[in-house]
Amino acid sequence: MDEAIPGLPDRISGDMVSTIAHLTHVSGIAAPTGGGRALEDARLLAPILAPPHNIMCVGKNYHAHAQEFSRSGFDAGSTAADAVPEYPIIFTKPSGAISAHGDDIPLWPGIDAAVDYEAELAVVIGRGGRGISRANALAHVFGYTIINDVTARDLQRQHKQWFLGKGIDGFGPMGPWIVTADEIDGSDLRVTCRVNGETRQNATTADLIFDVPTLIETISRCVTLCPGDVIATGTPEGVGIGFNPPRFLGDGDVIEVEIAGIGVLRNTVRRMPGATPKPSHAVLEAK
With a cut of 50, which residues of the chain have pLDDT below it? Predict the structure, then answer.
């Protein structure tokens, strides 16, 4: 049987953030009806186009990645002694970076020399709140999706913070859809990333330094989480800066991020007009 996208009940808005808020607070919603629309004929948008806050991200949240990042020379101010964080490192990625499954990852002129990939499990908040305890955190999860936290490593190093290097337009592919929390266990999902078919990252969320409940507790202590908020949980070992020399993305590279139980997020790197031509897998020495 061909896969289809069912229509939503009339009472639910087509906007995913308001839909999540509605589904979280109202019981007895009628099931989708009708034949829907063939998936193969549809263009999928990012499941959350405008979360209530920026995408909330977590840095260095896998042990092996924390070590490779510290060794890379791109982690400004970090040493081997403090490579693994004692507390979650939280930063944000603006919603303007969000793009969809199948969209191109842009190489923008002047900021295209050290573009890297990061495969991540993303948590979508359902019931909002502040001061959420770790014990109750999973009751606030609507579901899970995939994010590729694309990063300009040279900007990340130069500015000694992560917002600019990760906040570039088009540097946040998300999707291809949300899988609701009743369908999968986010605590032990296989996360892989392939560049032109070559496996670069391969780990499981069981290896997270700070798990999903801890992240929700930490963030909600300071920020009131809202339905539709997105938390990117961090990336495992195997990013481009983990190689010697680093292996960055070039024009035409195809990036596939796969998470068990969710699916595959696929995007192609494209040079924008005026960008400096670079071969696939461009390299830049750490300084």
Answer: 1, 279-287
CB distance 237 to 73 below 8 Å: no
Q: 73: buried, middle or exposed (CB in 10 Å: 19+, 13-18, 0-12)?
A: middle
How far is Cα 169 from Cα 276, in angstroms, rounded to an integer? 18
Q: Quote the tokens at residue 116.
A: 């890297």
Strands (DSSP E) contained in the chain are 4-5, 37-38, 55-59, 89-93, 98-100, 104-107, 115-116, 119-125, 141-148, 151-152, 172-180, 190-195, 198-204, 230-232, 254-259, 263-271
Angle at 211 between CA 53 and CA 105, to 5 degrees: 50
Helices (H) and strands (E) in the chain, counts: 5, 16
C-beta separation of 248 from 282 below 8 A: yes
Separation between Cα atoms, residue 218 and residue 194, nearest integer Å: 31
Give SS3 for 21. helix
The CA-based diameter of the chain, rounded to the nearest angstrom, is 59
Is the peptide bond preceding residue 245 cis, with omega within 30 degrees of 0? Answer: yes
Sheet holding 141-148, edge to edge: 89-93, 55-59, 230-232, 119-125, 141-148, 172-180, 98-100
Tokens 């292996």 map to which residue? 247
Distance CA 88, CA 66 (A): 12
pTM, two decimal places: 0.90
